[in-house]
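Q: What would this chain look like folded?
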Amino acid sequence: MAAPLHGTNEGTNEPRPNPFGNYSLLEAQQPKAVGSSAAVRESPFANYSFKEAQQNDACPSPTSTGAANEGVPEAHMDADTRTVFVQAADSVSGGSMHSRLESDTHQHYGMGAEMGSSYSQQSGVAMSIEQYAIRTLYEEFRDRAAAKIETIVELRLDREPNLAKHLGHGADATFDRTLEKLGMLARRRPRVIIELLLVWRKTTIDAADEDPLESIGGAHDPQQHQAAALSRAHYIVRERKSLVSVYILCRALDAVVAQLDASHLEGDLGDRLEELVFGQVKQVNPANLRRSQNRREIQDLYARMIGRISGIRFSSMSDRFIAELERIPMVSSSSDERIVELLHNMRFIRLRVYPIDALEESAAFLLSCAKFYSRTSGSLRLKHAWASLLTELLMPMAAVVDAEVNLPELVQAIDIIYAKAMKMAAKVRHVTVAFPLAAATLCVSRRDIFHQRWLSLLEYCIQRLKDKQFRRVSMDAILRMLWVYLFRYPESTAVVLRRIDSLSRIFFPATKLHAWPKTVPPAAFVYFLVCAACYSFDFASRQLLQNMLQVDSGWPGTSRDIGDAGPILDTLNPARVALAFQALVSVAAIASNNASAANATAHADDSDGIDRGSAAAAAAADSAGQTTTSFRPPFPG
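A: My prediction, written as structure tokens:
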């Protein structure tokens, strides 16, 4: 007969057997040491709180906390562990934890009122299962992280290891899956998982500070130079463990935040997470980043986390950056370095165009950045950092905006940025950053502003195509503006086709046999052909592709005698033929994908019995000077 559930049997007050046997909550918090059945491993979470975790920098100087624990009873040593695990259970049980655990936690750590609650017999089974899952997954993460740390510590001390090679995404599929599981579990208990990760980081640093250097030097040699060598080796090992633990923490937190949404980061948890991540960005020393590639990698991980958090809490995260920029005085080279590093960490912030509240927040943030950029003077590095940042912020928006470009704050920001960018574009030393920024501003401008300004920038870019060092950025700017001109703000069909023809003569001059300048990638010319074919396939096939393939006017299906092949081979340009074929394949793929999406939409529309009049709509679009092609290539970000 199956054992009844935990509780009391009906009709008798006999206790029902516990389905987990003798497994208790306290035992879950005090796992046994590997290889020993009697010894109990001391909890790594003693004397640590979430607030303390946020005050750690990337490479802290750990301090021993043993003195503060003298005289604390053994029952209190695992209070932080109990607090974290009790929280996972409380959200299920809804009651209050055992009174002794609650009072001990509150007395020694001041967290009873905030985190504690209680254990309920009715929900004991569900609570234990969830708590066991958290404990098991955390131990898996802890053990794998410890193995990673030991592996990297054993590498040569005279060379800085490449942490991205050992710990980056894809380096270890098993470890990646562990982090993914942590992220999925955080959907239900984000606070618990985040606190456990922060506590793990603090515990790892404390252990690194206390570990003897037995594996490197053995006994301490009285000679001074040997003592200095041992001290240096101990410092390198401790520093390496610190960097590795921070790298692992960043990867784990990134995996957790990637699974969260606004409902998970409401209130103090979101504020604390922002403070933790932004604090690392704000306090970083640029000199340390220049000396260590691993520190730069860690800083980039923090920047990616900022991007993820800003997708959930854009207003508060963007406000932190603006407030910090206002606090830094622009009076010295050290201030410029701090600002440049701060801008470098802002590049993962993504502006949103919907819903309307998000668009207004994005426009306000962009306007503040535009004002900072307009006041920048003197420092070449600072000007380029602002221009690069604004380009990265605007490009994702340029691919999706429509009527949103009419928002007054966005219009004002774009005008300020464009004026400064064009002023910089007039100087050769700024061309590499000014052209992309000016093109990005035009891509998010209103129709009248775009048609008023884009031809002048187009002429600038065409002139710079003659300079090898500026060909790449000039070509990119031309293609981005061309996409907007063809598919968002087109003129009459005749005018558009003349523009395409004139650009084709510049890109593929008849007097030169080479296909393209070596400093421009062939993908840029393929993209130009794809844009032209998507706008008007008939024009592109007859005026562009046919000439590049050296085919008669009867193309396709032209027949020639084998004896007439000689003149064709003399004039045929294999490189341009390859470009034309690549463009045809790309257009076919785009048309196929568009046809599949159109069929799905048509089936959905047919269900309401309404005739959409696609032919009439196409004719109306053509008469209005718009392209009649129903598909377009992706925006060249």
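The chain has a mean pLDDT of 76.
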